[in-house]
Design a protein that fits this description.
This is Metal-sulfur cluster biosynthetic enzyme. The radius of gyration is 14 Å and the shape is globular. With 112 residues, it is an alpha+beta fold. It is built from 4 helices and 3 strands, in the order ααββαβα.
């Protein structure tokens, strides 16, 4: 049976499209976009929090998440859900990812 850690590791291969646009690719795990992961009998549900309620990239991210997780053994079904009420804050990012973005965005747009 697949573990949550294995799912999380596979999700590290999915970059946040907006981070790519800034020239500093950051995966969705390090961005702090993963709110929850549930694994039940070969079905994986990933719940995301978005950096903005107006995110236009959810379709692309969902597709990439599905592709990444279906490569794992014993994964028969993938569901991606978005918690539109969850608030994302820059502090949710991995500290190393924050530092990479801080070098690109020196005007304090990333939490310190």
């Amino acid at each position: 049976m697949i573990t949550i850690d294995e799912v999380r590791a596979a999700l590290r291969g999915v970059a946040d499209p907006c981070a790519i646009a800034t020239g500093a690719p950051v995966d969705i795990v390090d961005m702090g976009l993963i709110q929850a992961i549930d694994v039940t009998a070969g079905a994986v549900t990933v719940t995301l929090r978005l950096t903005s309620p107006f995110c236009m990239q959810i379709g692309l991210m969902s597709e990439q998440i599905g592709k990444a997780l279906r490569r794992l053994p014993d994964v028969a079904d993938v569901r991606v859900e978005v918690d539109h009420l969850a608030e994302w804050m820059p502090e949710m990012m991995d500290p190393q990812a924050q530092e990479r973005l801080r070098r690109i965005r020196p005007l304090g747009l990333v939490a310190r």
